[in-house]
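Example 9 (inverse folding). The structure is encoded as follows.
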């Protein structure tokens, strides 16, 4: 299977630049896995497609305001740091621009002294290992001065940081939002719970690798990035109970999907655990846990469209995307949603 098999033509004006209000007023394309049938709804209609005994599995990771702007202490030159991964304590792997200003030992100041940094190491890939210091809690300082690391296809400024967070986000650590969850409001979640649908939480910290393009022609040759996940005992118990009772497991987002399928592939069951996953799901993969998937519309030739094609069937998903373009759905992170069941 070739990467080009997952290409579709997307007019630029269909790339959503801002989120809709309220969150659950976005459109919803409902795709039947068996029949390939398509229905056009709004996200608040999702409740009509859920039945008592279903289990929604959501990713409660919270996005770090990981882009910070500062100056080099020696020269006053401006710099931009993007925090990629916490190594330990206040030591982070960081992308620095311009890189020539961030040599080993270089010192920087951010937010008029609220945060300081020293480059401890320059890695072979050009990323920097950086030690941060602050008079207050590091994450509190970051929340004051940091900006959301929005995807490169979003060019408009985000006025409210919380609109790039799910309403149930809790575990700080992602470099990008698990965007399928952005459509839920607290009120809609309550209505879903009142219907007898359970909600369980996993954590997968989304890395910037999620935006990394597939650069090989042969899909199977692509090297996936690694991301940290955790499944708590309460969630594992709910999943196993739901399966035992004949209920459906519906993942909210590709990150929740990858977490569940990673653990099931590794252990043959869902159990409380944490670790790193680089699972790559593309057509031909046999799903072990999922019965349904709520997801956004993904970039052409991306690993994400490959995952949804694996779940829905290749022909079904490519036709659904064609229809979505014709019907002028909004695409990508702030765009509309799809429910595949």
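The amino acid assigned to each position is listed next.
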């Amino acid at each position: 299977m070739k990467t080009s098999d997952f290409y579709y033509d997307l007019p630029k004006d269909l790339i959503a630049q801002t989120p809709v209000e309220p969150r659950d007023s976005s459109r919803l394309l409902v795709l039947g896995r068996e029949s390939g049938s398509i229905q056009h709804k709004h996200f608040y209609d999702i409740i009509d497609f859920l039945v008592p005994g279903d289990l929604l599995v959501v990713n409660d990771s919270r996005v770090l305001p990981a882009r910070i702007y500062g100056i080099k202490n020696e020269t006053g030159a401006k710099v931009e740091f993007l925090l990629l991964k916490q190594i330990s304590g206040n030591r982070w792997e960081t992308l620095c621009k311009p890189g020539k200003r961030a040599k080993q030992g270089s010192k920087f100041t951010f937010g008029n002294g609220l945060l300081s940094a020293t480059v401890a190491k320059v890695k072979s890939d050009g990323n920097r290992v950086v030690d941060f210091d602050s008079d207050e809690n590091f994450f509190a300082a970051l929340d004051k001065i940091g900006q959301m690391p929005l995807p490169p296809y979003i060019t408009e400024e985000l006025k409210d940081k919380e609109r790039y967070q799910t309403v149930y986000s809790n575990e700080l650590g992602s470099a990008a939002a698990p965007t399928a969850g952005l459509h839920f409001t607290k009120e809609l979640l309550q209505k879903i719970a009142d219907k007898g649908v359970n909600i369980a939480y996993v954590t997968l910290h989304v890395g910037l690798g999620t935006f990394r393009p597939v650069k090989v022609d042969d899909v199977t040759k692509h090297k996936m990035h690694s991301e940290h996940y955790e499944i708590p005992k309460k969630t594992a118990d709910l999943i196993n109970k739901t399966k035992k009772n004949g209920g459906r497991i519906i993942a909210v987002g590709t990150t929740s999907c990858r977490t569940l399928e990673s653990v099931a592939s590794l252990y043959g069951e869902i159990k409380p655990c944490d670790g790193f996953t680089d699972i790559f799901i593309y057509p031909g993969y046999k799903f072990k846990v999922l019965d349904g998937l709520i997801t956004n519309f993904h970039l052409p030739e991306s690993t994400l469209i490959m995952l949804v094609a694996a779940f829905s069937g290749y022909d079904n998903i490519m036709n659904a995307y064609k229809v979505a373009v014709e019907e002028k759905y909004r695409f990508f992170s702030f765009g509309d949603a799809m429910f595949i069941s």
